[in-house]
Amino acid sequence: MTQRTTDITVGLFMLAGLAALLFLALQVSGLSPKSAKSTYTIYADFNDTGGITPRGRVSMAGVTVGSVDSITLNKETFQARVAMSIHGDVDNIPSDSAAVIRTSGLLGEQYIDISIGGEMDSLKPGDTFYSTQSAMNIERLISNFASGK
Amino acid sequence: MIDKIASLGRSGADAVISIGRAGRFLGGVLSGVPRPVTGFPLLMKQLYSVGVLSLAIIVVSGLFIGMVLGLQGYTILSDFGSEAAIGQMIALTLVRELGPVVTALLFAGRAGSALTAEIGLMKATEQLSSMEMMGVDPLRRVIAPRLWAGFIAMPVLAIIFSMVGIWGGMLVGVEWLGVFEGSYWGNMQASVDFWDDVVNGVIKSVVFGFVCAWIAVYQGYDCVPTSAGISSATTKTVVYSSLAVLGLDFVLTAVMFGNF
User: Running DSSP on this structure, what letter comes out for residue B34?
Assistant: First the structure.
């Protein structure tokens, strides 16, 4: 085998590796070139975040509009403070909207749903949701039901 | 009794000495980076024999492992009615764990043993010492291209393995068992993160490639130059590489994915 043939085969091999990496990036991990969209951060205080994790989904009417950035404990109120980044083009969330933790399906993952209010003003970057609804806890529901409350 | 204790101590000291020699050997090889112009054809030749010729076994194993994951995953997940999560399961398993690890194990068996046997035979037939007589540094001429080739080829092979496996899983899950194709890819894209999962998998395979190639060339270079010595060096290459890969995989997984 001549040096030239070796070079060409190795070149093809490296190209195949690059193509496979591109496939893993675009098709498998869904990394889109325009993913560096502008976002802004808003906050919500929950009594119980349930199974929400960073990188979790924030949606509005079922459409994903952002993701959870971080979850920290507010030591004064003993509530969980969730920071979420919302896509920059969704800039008209009414200021009396509520952040609700919902579960997709019975056993599915939990996500934050923004339930729309009616106010004309909209939430600005750094604002906090006025009202929130915490994660539904099936065990608590059952124990409430069993004790007849 | 005293003899036994003495031999225990001797084998311990031997192990430490051989690790030290392996480290010094690595230093010698790495300081002899292949020269850009003259070393390049040598590196190409090794990349061909280490990388391109391993492609067949990698592609075939990747395909079958992906297909088995699809079949097994479907059986378990359909019990919970969540067979749509099969794409997520296959992709995360392959990209994080099976891709780098199985590729490294196959690489140790297919390419590592060949490297050891080749270098060992060169030593037994005194080709290495005649190179030294001619003023050619065997570390630079023989060992360095092989080490670098293993180092470069492994991540490429692992990436190809993962891709073929995911495609094989789709073949079984979507084409045969009838999972909706949109949820196969959609669930996968929602749960696989490029930096956390794909890049960490590539980092793993870089580490494995380095360790496997190092063990293979060192065992060949350090073997007893007889036919029995070469055979035991080849065996050691496969055993040590496999153990090192599995042990390192645990450590790397704990560091990369262990922060709950």
Answer: P
CB contact under 8 A, B80 and A20: no
pLDDT tens, position by position, for chain B (260 residues)?
889 999 999 999 988 998 898 888 888 887 766 566 667 888 889 999 999 999 999 999 999 999 999 999 999 988 887 888 898 999 999 999 999 999 999 999 999 999 999 999 999 999 989 998 998 888 888 888 898 899 899 999 999 999 999 999 999 999 899 888 888 888 888 788 888 889 999 999 999 999 999 999 999 998 999 999 999 999 999 999 999 999 999 999 999 887 75
CB neighbours of residue A16 within 10 Å: 18
Nearest alpha carbon to residue B102 among B168, B185, B49: B168
Q: What is the ipTM of this complex?
A: 0.82
Residues 6+ apart with CB under 8 A from B225: B120, B123, B124, B126
pTM of the predicted model as reported, rounded to 2 decimal places: 0.78
Using CA coordinates, name the residue in chain A closest to B170: A28
- Write out the H or E segment, with its range, that includes residue A41: strand A39-46
Q: Do A17 and B155 touch (CB under 8 A)?
A: yes
CA distance B77 to B183: 14
